[in-house]
Amino acid sequence: MTTASSPSAPAPVSSDRRRRRRNVLVGWSFVLPNFLGFAALTLVPVVGTFVIAFTDWDSYSSPKWIGLANFRRMQHDENFWTAVRNTCWYAAGHIPLTLVAALGLAVLLNQKLRGVGLLRTAFFFPYVTSLVAVAVVWNMLLSPDIGPVNQLLRHLGWSHPPGWTTSTDWSLPALILTSVWRDMGYYMVLFLAGLQTIPAELYEAARVDGAGPWMRFRHVTLPGLRPTTFFVTVMLTISSFKVFDLVQVMTEGGPGRSSLVLSQLIFREGITHGRFGYSSAVSLALFVIALAVTLVQFQFQRRSER
Amino acid sequence: MRKTTARVLPVALAATLFGAAACGSGGGSGTTSDGRTVVKIALWNYQTTPEFKALIDGFEAKYPKIDVQPVDILADDYPDKVTTMLAGGDRTDVLTMKNITDYARFGTRGQLLPLTDDVAKMADKSAYSGLADYNLKGQYYALPYRQDFWVLFYNRKLVGDADVSHLTWSGFDSLAKQLTTGSGSSKTYGTYLHTWRSVVQAVASAQTGGNLLGPDYGWMKDQYSVALDVQKAGATLPFSTASSQKITYDSQFTTGKAAMVPMGTWWAAALLSEKAQGKNPVDWGMAPLPQVSADGKATTFGSPTAFAVNKKARNADAAKQFVEWASGPEGAAAIAKIGLVPSYHSSSVMNAFFGVQGMPTDAVAKQAMQPSKVQLEMPVSDKSSDVDEILTQEHELVMSGEKSVDDGIKEMDDRVKTEVR
Predict the structure, then answer these.
(1) Would you tell me the crossing angle of helices B266-276 and B50-62 to the nearest 10 degrees?
(2) C-alpha A29: how far from its chain's center?
(3) Which of A80, A204, B142, B155 could anchor a disulfide with B308, C-beta 3.0 to 4.6 Å?
(4) Where do runs of H (alpha helix) occur along B315-404?
(5) Residues in domain ABC transmembrane type-1 (chain A) (predicted)?
(6) Closest to B240 (Cβ–Cβ): which among A140, A166, A268?
């Protein structure tokens, strides 16, 4: 406070610089607690993974540097390739289906209907429900012999309905179905927010020009939602590739290895078998896959914006 | 003043958070406020696993200067959680070894304190069944206190007059079919074969001499034929239903849905305590596990449970004292009294076991408790956990009908040969 009153200092410049520095400091003080948590719990482990992936480490004795051996092993590991295939399958089903379901719900529930708030809440509900409860309930619904889903299918004339989580062919579809049901409410809310940003005048103009509902959806709604769609796609992609909890609770990767996904393999190799080096190498592979897919999506987005 | 507060507060908060995090792992002293030595013991499901309380109470009564504190962990997560704790330099004094495979892993990594000298001091080593399984290249890092093995539990009302004392597996198969009655929701199954791979694979290994570490698994074929035949006849809840519904063997038996269930002896204590709480109306008995050959010998499999001392234990001496006491005659008496089979064997311990209120004491039950041979459920090796994963996956595929027995066995052979190193 004394320097501010000193006449010799060029007051405006100094107070400007000081204000800026103070702003920076205040900003940092706000960010700092979060950043410390992030650094200690995420950043350091992530950087650690990059190093550990090149070692042989059981989490207890000192790590041994083995260069690229973990990656060579990965190349010939059938579990790894099964997990890559399953993860890609899961993503290929989960991303488009959730996108379409969420968009469809958002468009439907964007109308001024009575009780629309209740419906929106109802569709959002699965997302806030405990995942374990969701998995257990769906396991029951999809139970091959006594589950209501198969009872209905039999009623409709399908004499040998799928075995769902107990069949190697149907375990991934069962997981996709459950996760679409669980996630669509959340992405629906994002789409609803996106829909609010499209000016009503555009719809009016389109209607004046004689555009029907489908034309309005194609040429007004979809382009207007492009930023939201892009964001939703990226988030969905990342969450699909790192899916773990649902698979672990519903099928544990089974039957056999039919629904083994990459995050599960990472968990098994590291925690169950104590091969933290190899487990980190697989994490790196997952990171590279997710990064590559996301970069491709960014590229597409940039091109379509031009 | 207010400005200063605004500036200092976030920093102080951050410092507190950091400080708290730093102290979190290192805090705590080794004694209570009244000067008793604290021994912390890692265990699972403290509320529903009465043996731990029985052992802790018994030990504290004898050594009032020591305070034993349970560190309760969810049973399913126990091995993973202990792995993580030890990797983080945890100083919990006593670690319960849930199975031998994990024990071998912790032991060979040097995470446990050697107890070899204490074993050498034992007066009568042969009384400790299962002790030899803890021999890791001449060193012992844990002492067993419980030795479970598999028997056949049966519902007296449902089984009726049928003789279950000397069953072969083919006899078991036809009896299970015979005892199956009703249909739909009122169906009573002749048996319940739980989803664990041991129900088929460990039985076959113990009774045919096949090696579970492979890589040749042809000896499993007959046992799979029995299990699949029982399932095909509808004499057990189908594997796929049991696994997708996460059915517990306890509910199948105590609700009278299954007449016979092959299971480990630990179940007796659970059934007794349920009955004591009025939850389970079933009148049950125990018989020897059915056999592959009818030569009169009763070969079964099982697995001991042990206590080990953490190498980084805060109070290693007191921890050792607990481990020795729990595995010795006094600990054995404490757990036999609640219906569990202790590792330490003596006639007085067996009398205590059969003296438990509600324990079946007929000749067949006594015969079941004296098998001719108990083979270790899974051999100890650094390959055990990898092989276990493969065998579990292929077991699922065979039992859910996704693969034939021959294809499943061939896949086990191939995968164990190529994937396990």
Answers:
(1) 90
(2) 30
(3) B142
(4) 316-327, 329-336, 347-354, 363-368, 384-399
(5) 84-297
(6) A166
Give the residue on B whose Cα is nearest the Cα of A146.
B241
Please name which of B151, B144, B135 lies closest in space to residue B304, comparing C-alpha atoms. B144
Rounded distance between C-alpha atoms, residue B127 and residue B149, angstroms: 16
User: pLDDT tens digits for B316-328?
Assistant: 999 999 999 999 9
Q: Which residues from chain B sit within 8 angstroms of residue A40, using beta carbons?
A: 21
Res. B355: pLDDT tops 50: yes
Q: In the predicted model, what is the mean pLDDT of chain B?
A: 88
Measuring CA to CA, how many Å separate B185 from each of B182, B195, B246, B257? 9, 21, 18, 10
CA distance A287 to A242: 9
Question: CA–CA separation, B395 vs B197, rounded Å?
Answer: 6
* Model confidence at A62: pLDDT above 90: no
With CB atoms and an 8 Å threshold, state whether A58 touches B246: no
Three-state DSSP class for residue B73: strand
In this complex, which of A145, A167, A268 lies closest to B402 when CB atoms are compared?
A: A167
Tell me the residue type at A11.
A
Rounded to the nearest integer, the mean pLDDT of chain A is 89
- Residues B164, B360: contact at Cβ < 8 Å? no
Indicate the Cα dihedral angle A77, A83, A88, A90, nearest 10°. Answer: 170
Question: Structure tokens of B20?
Answer: 């708290």
Is residue B73 classed exposed, middle or buried when 0-12, 13-18 and 19+ CB atoms within 10 A define those classes? buried
Per-residue buried b or exposed e for A114-137, using 16+ beta carbons within 10 Å of the residue's own CB: eeeeeebeebbebbeeebeebbee
> pLDDT, tens digit, for every residue of A68-100?
999 999 998 889 999 999 999 999 999 999 999
pLDDT digits (tens, 9 = 90+) for B136-182: 888 999 999 999 999 999 999 999 988 998 899 999 999 999 999 98
Please compute the mean of the pLDDT values over residues B357-365 and round it to a whole number: 90
Q: Which of B51, B35, B43, B120 is nearest to B335 (CA)?
A: B51
Question: Which residues of chain B neighbour A62 with C-beta distances below 8 Å?
Answer: none
Structural domains of chain B in order of their starting residue, each with its CATH number: 28-148+303-354 (3.40.190.10), 150-301+365-419 (3.40.190.10)
3-state helix vs strand vs coil in chain A, percent to 5: 75, 0, 25
Q: Which whole number is the average pLDDT over A273-282?
A: 91
